[in-house]
Design brief:
Layout lengths: L15 E5 L3 H12 L3 E6 L7 H7 L2 E4 L4 H5 L3 E4 L8 H8 L4 E3 H6 L5 E6 L4 H14 L3 E6 L16 E6 L2 H4 L9 E4 L13 H9 L10 E5 L3 H8 L4 E6 L6 E5 L2 E5 L4 E6 L11 H14 L3 H10 L8 E6 L2 E5 L6 H8 L7 E6 L11 H7 E7 L3 H8 L5 E3 L3 H12 L4 E4 L12 H20 L1
Parallel strand pairs: 1-2, 1-4, 2-3, 4-5, 6-8, 6-9, 7-8, 9-10, 10-11, 11-12, 16-20, 17-18, 17-20, 18-19
Antiparallel strand pairs: 12-13, 13-14, 15-16
Helix pairs in contact: 6-10, 6-11, 15-16
Length: 460
């Protein structure tokens, strides 16, 4: 099996390497670098980090409570975790001194022996990555799944073999620092404003995403959402063969035809799986299934394996996740809807008139007014939480009634009361969670815990 492009030798033995950010990617990178003979310093702004003592025992030096300029400027190499912004003074100092600065994804790729399937997009990455991995496993491939979800790529290096497929969720933060990263199959699901609190603007965000195609060659593949003009435009600049996916029939590619997802070629059409095998809530998730099926078909998975994997897949936690029905009110957890477009798609999954949406958190940019028509047609009310509460009140004024809650618990109770009878309470925040929670997963779990309390109280 061919490896992911031609790689030059990459050696860090006896090099001084500073890793910025002691979350799971940074910790995995530090462990990998020590194993490869580097002298590693792991730097973090926090005063305490996970696995501190085991890392020290491995020989990793810890710099806690801030990033020291000298630690970065005197290094031979700096490795950044995805959450670390490039504009920090210590990182600027390293670059001014000519120190190479790479991302964890790019670092790990240089030592992989297997091929890479990389998946990006503003929304749907985790669902598509997970389902793609399951399809390839069902087809008998040796598969490792991770990246922005699950196991960091650095943690996959030691187990990597020439016949392994690494299915990687790649965020814009990971892609913006890639130089060597070269996927065999690159998937771009969609593109809409997100992370504009980190990127300089939409153009910079799109440029970071487009780097997924940058090193591809003519014998690689780009799986591209034909229903998204921005994605099509970015993919056209690459050199890989294009496999288009669409919810409507197209002359060539993977699309919906009648009650089937099919692969259409110029002279033939092959059925990949019936739509009846899909058990995901929300019609927008069909795009994720199309992309995963397309990767499976390219890799050589048969219809039977694709159908079996899709049929057994009921979605991810915190992604259009059914939670409970209490006194006729249905609760759905879409805490992963952390941007405006993702929230709009979630809202549009429901019929007119019965929805109460819980929105808010830390705003990442975008135009909240894009939610107006979807909410006007479907929602009884919005309950806003977090720092962005006044932004939602202003943006949605005149389209839907907006009420504010001081906590998620209060929001759940208020939304429950307003959704009765037979309505839907949807957590689709359109914002990051960091003003109130550690991450979207904690926010989703807290939502489910409060719904469970409501259920117990209702049963008394």
């Amino acid at each position: 099996m061919r490896t992911s492009g031609v790689k030059t030798a990459f050696d860090v033995r006896e090099k001084r390497v500073t890793v910025a950010g002691a979350a799971r990617s940074g910790i995995a990178a530090a462990r990998l670098l020590v194993a490869r003979g580097a002298h590693v310093t792991l730097s973090d702004r926090r005063a305490d980090v996970p696995e501190a003592e085991p890392l020290r025992q491995l020989g990793v030096a810890l710099e806690l409570g801030g990033h020291g300029v000298d630690t970065f400027a005197t290094a031979d190499l700096v490795v950044l975790s995805p959450g670390v912004p490039l504009e920090q003074a210590a990182i600027r100092a390293a670059r001014e001194r000519g120190v190479p600065v790479v991302g964890e994804l790019d670092l790990a790729f240089r030592w992989l022996r297997g091929r890479v399937v990389a998946i990006t997009g503003t929304k749907g990455k985790s669902t598509t990555t997970t389902l793609t991995g399951r399809i390839l496993q069902a087809a008998g491939f040796s598969v490792a799944v991770g990246g922005n979800i699950g196991q960091p790529l650095s943690a996959q290096v030691d187990a990597s073999t020439p016949d392994m497929l690494h299915v990687i969720e790649a965020s814009s933060f990971q892609l913006e620092l890639t130089e060597a990263f070269h996927p065999w199959i690159a998937v771009m699901l969609n593109l809409s404003p997100d992370h504009l609190d980190r990127h300089a603007g939409m153009e910079a965000y799109a440029a970071a995403k487009a780097r997924i195609f940058r090193n591809q060659e003519a014998n690689d593949w780009a799986v591209v959402n034909a229903d998204d003009p921005a994605v099509l435009d970015l993919a056209r600049r690459g050199r890989a063969r294009a496999c288009l996916v669409s919810r409507a029939p197209i002359p060539e590619g993977v699309c919906v035809e009648g009650e089937w997802i099919v692969e259409r070629r110029l002279e033939s059409t092959a059925r990949l799986l019936p739509l009846s095998a899909i058990h995901l809530q929300g019609p927008h998730l069909l795009e994720d299934v199309l992309a995963a099926a397309a990767v499976g078909a390219i890799a050589g998975a048969g219809s039977e394996a694709i159908t079996a994997a899709v049929e057994e897949f009921h979605g991810l936690e915190h992604a259009m996740e059914f939670v409970a029905t209490i006194d006729g009110v249905t609760f759905v957890n879409d805490s992963k809807a952390t941007n405006v477009e993702a929230a709009r798609r979630s809202i549009e999954s429901y019929d007119e008139g019965g929805l109460v949406a819980i929105l808010g958190g830390r705003f990442k940019g975008g135009d909240l007014r894009l939610l107006r028509e979807a909410l006007r047609a479907r929602a009884r009310a919005v309950v806003a939480i977090g720092e962005a509460r006044p932004l939602f009140r202003t943006a949605l004024s005149g389209a839907v009634d907006v009420y504010e809650a001081d906590s998620l618990e209060a929001a759940v109770h208020d939304a429950f009361a307003r959704a009765k009878p037979r309505g839907v309470v949807l957590l689709a925040p359109a914002c990051a969670s960091f003003d109130m929670f550690q991450d979207y997963a904690e926010r989703g779990r807290r939502f489910k815990e409060e719904v469970a309390r409501l259920g117990r109280a209702s049963a008394r």
